[in-house]
Specification:
Blueprint: H1 3-6, H2 20-30, H3 38-42, E1 50-55, H4 61-67, E2 74-81, E3 90-95
Antiparallel strand pairs: 1-2, 2-3
Length: 99
């Protein structure tokens, strides 16, 4: 294993576009294993919108660290909830993990 390979996280993410009927069937299939979080439970539709602004340097160091899958990368964002305009806004940071 090269030094570069030792510093790279192998990750695969697949996203699928499904029609409304398939989405409804998927929701019904996983529903017994899920619990609404407090924000969704307060909303009559059982969902809510999250608004995030990601922060970075002028040189886009955080973006490029993520793009190159560096182990020591972080994400910094400001997050709020559209349905609760008077609710707190959160500053969050997260670090990449190898576990």
């Amino acid at each position: 294993m090269s030094e570069r390979d030792a510093n790279v996280i192998e990750r695969r993410e697949f996203k699928y576009l499904v029609d409304a009927l398939t989405a409804a069937r998927l929701r019904a299939a996983i529903q017994p294993f899920c619990e609404l979080d407090p924000w969704a439970a307060r909303n009559p539709r059982g969902r809510y919108t999250i608004e995030s602004v990601y922060l970075d340097t002028e040189a886009l160091r955080l973006f490029w660290a993520n793009e190159h899958e560096q182990l020591d990368r972080v994400k910094v964002r400001v997050r709020g909830y559209a349905e609760a305009p008077t609710a707190p806004v959160f500053l969050k940071s997260s670090a990449a993990s190898t576990t």
